[in-house]
Write a structure and sequence with these properties.
The chain is mostly helical. It has one domain. The chain contains 2 helices and no strands. The protein is elongated. The two termini are about 15 Å apart. About 0% of the residues are buried.
Length: about 70
């Protein structure tokens, strides 16, 4: 059975947050034309979302839903 380590979940969380953070900054800037507002909101939003993503991943890893063991 495949078991994902905490370090892998953390790495996935960080790389996804970098992509999501950059896109949020750009979108908020396009709406506000203010870099300070864009960065402020993006930092708060993505700090919360990173923690929620980690919890979500660990919860799914604790479940066997949709997993199967295959023999070759």
């Amino acid at each position: 059975m495949f078991h994902e380590r905490h370090s892998r979940t953390i790495a996935k969380s960080i790389t996804w947050r970098i992509i999501a953070f950059a896109s949020t900054v750009i979108v908020v800037y396009c709406l506000t034309l203010d870099w300070e507002t864009s960065l402020y909101h993006s930092v708060i939003i993505h700090a919360v979302k990173t923690v929620l993503y980690y919890i979500h991943e660990r919860a799914w890893n604790a479940s066997n839903f949709g997993q199967e063991i295959r023999s070759h």
